């Protein structure tokens, strides 16, 4: 059994004909975010996926097997909620409420897409969004604060990540002009134990 243990960096250009000839591996989103996986290529060959933890594969990625062979990643069609809204405000509210629930969301110019969930479908309908249950590939946003795999051909990621880091630095990297108690716990993401301190 071959092992797929390397993800080609997006800046490495490969001849399109080689990618086209490579066997494909069709995976749903839940499978594409697993770094250890027994899978079957679309040609029936069984393979083992062994990638660095935190890697999230995207449609069009190219993997390299331990024998040097290439494998092309395809995002599978899966059951998702396709969300539209009559205006930008409603779509923005929908995105806010989904983000508040830490729900993976694919963001388009005029739509949102998320894994099927009847409770969330009802919530979205109540705020005025139109929700359809459809079968489509699902590619949610990468975490703006660096969670997950920093992916080179997500065109907006580098900019979003830089902005998020700048905001984080501005908030935590200098003295505050106001006094307030601030409690850090494990969920804060700073890497230190819970404690209370006052900003000055």
From TrEMBL:
Q: Does Ribonucleoprotein appear among the keywords? A: no
Keyword Chaperone in record: yes
Q: Where in the cell is it found?
A: Cytoplasm
Q: Which Pfam families match?
A: UreE_C, UreE_N
Q: Which processes are annotated in GO (biological process)?
A: protein folding; protein-containing complex assembly; urea metabolic process
Q: Which GO terms describe its molecular function?
A: nickel cation binding; unfolded protein binding
**InterPro entries cross-referenced by the UniProt entry:** UreE (IPR012406), UreE_C_dom (IPR007864), UreE_N (IPR004029), UreE_N_sf (IPR036118)
- Cite the record's Basic and acidic residues compositional bias ranges: 172-189
- Span of domain UreE urease accessory N-terminal: 7-71
Q: Where does it sit, as one GO cellular component term?
A: cytoplasm
Q: Where is this region: Disordered?
A: 172-200
Per its UniProt record, what CDD domains does this chain match?
UreE
Q: What is this protein called?
A: Urease accessory protein UreE
Organism, per UniProt?
Paraburkholderia sprentiae WSM5005
The gene coding this protein: ureE
């Amino acid at each position: 059994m071959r092992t797929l243990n390397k993800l080609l960096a997006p800046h490495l250009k490969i001849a399109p004909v080689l990618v086209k000839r490579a066997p494909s591996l069709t995976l749903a989103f839940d499978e594409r975010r697993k770094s250890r996986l027994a899978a079957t290529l679309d040609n029936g060959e069984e393979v083992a996926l062994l990638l660095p933890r935190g890697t999230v594969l995207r449609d069009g990625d190219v993997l390299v097997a331990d024998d040097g062979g290439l494998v092309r990643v395809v995002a599978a069609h899966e059951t998702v909620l396709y969300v539209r809204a009559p205006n930008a405000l409603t779509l923005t509210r929908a995105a806010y409420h989904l983000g508040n629930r830490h729900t993976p969301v694919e963001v388009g110019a005029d739509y949102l897409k998320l894994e099927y969930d009847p409770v969330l479908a009802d919530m979205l309908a109540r705020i005025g969004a139109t929700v359809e249950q459809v079968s489509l590939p699902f590619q949610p946003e990468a975490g703006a604060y660096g969670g997950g795999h920093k992916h080179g051909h997500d065109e907006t990621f580098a900019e979003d990540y830089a902005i998020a880091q700048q905001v984080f630095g501005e908030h935590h990297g200098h003295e505050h002009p106001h006094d307030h108690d601030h409690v850090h716990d494990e969920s804060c993401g700073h890497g230190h134990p819970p404690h209370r301190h006052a900003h000055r």
